[in-house]
What we know:
Layout: H1 2-37, H2 41-53, H3 58-74, H4 78-91, H5 103-128, H6 171-178, H7 183-215, H8 219-256
Helix pairs in contact: 1-2, 1-3, 2-3, 3-4, 4-5, 7-8
Amino acid sequence: MLPGLALAQNSASIATAVEGQEAGFRARLQTAARLYEELEYEQSLEALFHAKAQARSDEDRVQVALYRGIVLADLGQRPQSLTAFREALSLNLDARLPVRVSPKVERDFENVREELRSTRAAEARAQSRPRTLPSPHEPSNTDRPVQSSEQPPGLVTPPMPSAPTVDVNSPQLHEERSRGLRPLPLVLLGAGVVAGGVGGYFGLQSRGNIQDARETFRMEARSSHLEEARSQALVANILFGAAITAAAGAAFTWFTSHETGRVAEVSP
């Protein structure tokens, strides 16, 4: 009876410890969600770090990774946010965002889902594709006769035509190079700089409202400051995204413009 009693007590203590750990995980996750709603992003990330340490199942890890992706996106750390979304969707491809986010963040999340879905489909096709073995009747490369490089007598190889030369000092060449100034990349780059500057202004305004909300003691004023901060942060994120898109477009149009190919059209 004594060994059985000790075994029952050990099982009860283990079950109590597991329940306590699950309750601790839920409390950490709820704290992280509350801090995110209050725009305390750094503290929310710290709570998510402790919650991940107490996660016991893949579903718990999915919830932590989703919240981390959302918080990092609002902080403007898009690569880290995409990594967190990829971690969550790798565990559960049908996972959904736990809170409402901006259209840009939701679009990034769905793009990661489609990327993983395409990757898994390609891997499945590669695994199901049958391997082709060489036929035993097909001669190998070593059995094929070696072709002699010597030419039979009387066969004369025609000379290869020489490539046309281009005079680098030609006035036409200088004229073509002068046409290389492309206004579209400069316009896109200027638009990106303007969008980034305005986004930075809204970001500073958002942080100012957060600071005002911390310093005030009136609930109505605090709610108003937090709402303004959330709106300004959303506008800042949109403008930062537009700035990045404009810069990428400027780089793309700069390197892919057809103006650089006109030098080859200059006659010798």
